[in-house]
Amino acid sequence: MTDTFRTSMLALALACAGAATAQPESTFTLRALTPETALRAAQAALQACRAQGYQVAVAVVDRGGLTQVLLRDRFAGPHTIGVATDKAWTALSFRTSTLDLADVTAAGKPMNGIRQVPRMLAVGGGILVEGGGSIFGGIGVSGAPSGDADDACAKAGLKAIEDAIAF
Prior knowledge:
Layout: H1 3-21, H2 35-51, E1 57-62, E2 67-72, H3 79-94, H4 98-104, E3 126-131, E4 134-142, H5 147-165
Helix pairs in contact: 2-5
């Protein structure tokens, strides 16, 4: 064996020994929306829809998919509560907007099968709440005359808090 080979093998052995003794981190930190920030997003989404004459429900779910805020306008239908919550949950769970999911899961598309997942709603109005490299949850709107209109209101809710979550 040459000295160069021995030196290389020794360096490799030391590197492997160091990697074997390295301890993985045992905890990590998550950022979460405060109830006040989630409420501000929901109120902004509700106001955006109300300004267009739409009576809607707005739900904000946390990063675990649990409802953090739910607002329902006076004349929004009873179904809008569950639909808004499920749209927010879907956006969070699949890490994409429900408007985009509507397209990629349409009949005949390879991803169509995920429409069978309980609570999954592939219709516009649910968007992921993320900022500064962190996922905070999802926001969902239901009750406007189309998924596109629900989506626009959800985006208005997100815009209202972007300063608080972009860091």
